[in-house]
Amino acid sequence: MKLKKVAACLLAAVMSVSLLAGCGSGGKGSDGAKNDEILLWSSATGPDGERIQKTINAYNDTNPDFKVKFVSMQADTFNTRLSTAGRNGKGVPDLALVASESLPTYNSQGMLASWDDMIADTEVKKENYVESAWEVGNLGGVQYGVPATMGSWVMYYNEDLMKKYAPEAMDDGYVTFEEIEKAGEAAKADGIYSYANTWSMQNYSNIYLQMGGEWLDAEGKISVNNDVSTAVIEELKKLNDSGYMVPNGEDANKMFMNQKLIFLPEGTWMLSNMEGIKDFTWKETFVPQWDLDNIVQCSGVDQFAIMNTKEERSDEKLKGMVAFMEWLQGNQLEWVKSGANPSALAMLENEEYLAMPQSFLLTTEEGREAININAAEGLSYVFSEYDTRAWDMITGVADSGETFNEIQKIVDEKMKK
Fold first, then answer.
1. Which of 109, 137, 188, 313 is most buried (most C-beta within 10 Å)?
2. CB 73 within 8 A of CB 43
3. CA angle (241 as vertex; 211, 387 as ends), nearest 5
4. How far apart are CA 39 and CA 306, in angstroms?
5. What is the average pLDDT across 168-188?
6. Residue pair 358/341 in contact by the 8 Å Cβ criterion
7. Can you tell me the distance from the alpha carbon of 366 to that of 271, in angstroms, rounded to the nearest whole number?
């Protein structure tokens, strides 16, 4: 899953659903795309959008039967246009980059078309992708998404400070919360922190799953008003009360740059910031772990989705869409320079990608197995509510039990709509 908030990703996904525009021969689609083009919509803008465009330009330079036209737009515009087009099946693109947690919602609304018949006997198949990334696109035994790239919540660390305050922390390849606490105690007198709650929902989701939490109850409904959620807050509150965590309102990224923070949980998408560091040695690794017997590394995986359309797509165009997916498997280098990881295993043969710091997630079986894709329907509502209330719970302004009860009620109500 790139990637910034889950709520925003959900919006993007909802929009992508309506983006699959149908085209007939000789004319133009609603976005001006010719019928011998594959129209792709995305909410990726700025540097990310530019990297996707460069990737598509490289594909189009191969002179395929159907070139790809990439249309990027701001998330709110994307959401509005996708929702409108998706309801009536007109004006949708051929392909849309959809956040993985949005697929179940689109499917329940009857907006998705299946990839199954199109990809039968092609190289677009499960064994060519990271398993967890592929499975997210499979709903009820039907493949509704083909994975694109993964954005992960990882951890950057100052190797110099770690060696000084927590010299054994990375001996086994993982940093635990116990080690973060020890490092925080050792560094506290020097005005250095060992942890940061930079994006609340990302830290919460990782720790929640590491502690054994489940997003769905026995009836298949979202469940966050439970003891595990409370335990997550207790740990974060402990770190904050002990003075190990960067205080609310302080810029953790700036503190990391100024060598006042040892461990910085952040997204793979922050790679360009890290590459600008010249004053110390930094490295990238798994998020902090609660239980080494249950390694969890949360990620988001954008999916290429086909939206239902009232305008029939030709068999030739459908084959062209599959050809684009096959080409992408080994040609995502420009795209992943943002810090994302590819979902296609063919990129493991690319030496330039393997030299990138985020590649550690795919280079070992342990890394691939640790990847967890948050894709439960309605989870974006949880994260949105949690983000606005997390610091109140962490600082003791609000009671965690009462707050999660409120979040649960709000999410339950939204799921009815």
1. 137
2. yes
3. 60
4. 11
5. 97
6. yes
7. 22
Helices (H) and strands (E) in the chain, counts: 19, 12
How many Cα neighbours within 13 Å face the side chain of 274?
23
pLDDT band at residue 4 under the 50/70/90 scheme: very low
DSSP 297-360: EEEEEEEEEEE--SSPPPHHHHHHHHHHHHHHTT--HHHHTTS-EESBGGGGG-HHHHTSGGGH
CB distance 359 to 341 below 8 Å:
yes
Q: What 3-state class would DSSP assign to 285? A: strand
Question: Considering the chain, what is the average pLDDT of its residues?
Answer: 89
Whether residue 75 contacts residue 43, with contact meaning beta carbons closer than 8 Å, is answered with: yes
Q: 79-94: buried (b, 16+ CB within 10 Å) or exposed (e) per residue?
A: bbbbeebbeebbbbbb
Residue 237 structure tokens: 């509150």
pLDDT (average), residues 163-172: 96
Give yes or no for a contact between 343 and 303, defined as CB atoms under 8 angstroms apart: no
pLDDT tens for each residue of 6-29: 444 443 433 343 333 333 334 444
pLDDT at 46: 84
pLDDT digits (tens, 9 = 90+) for 327-362: 999 999 999 998 999 999 999 999 999 999 999 999
How many Cβ atoms are within 10 Å of 352's Cβ, its own excluded?
11
Q: In this structure, what token pair is assigned to residue 244?
A: 């190990």
The answer for residues whose C-beta is within 8 angstroms of residue 85's C-beta and 6 or more apart is 18, 19, 21, 30, 91, 92, 307
Q: Are 267 and 6 in contact, with CB atoms under 8 Å apart?
A: no
More confident residue, 325 or 364: 325
Are 94 and 30 contacting, i.e. CB atoms less than 8 angstroms apart? Answer: no
Nearest to 264 by CA among 199, 332, 320, 210: 199
Instruction: Specify whether the CB–CB gap between 149 and 167 falls below 8 A.
Output: no
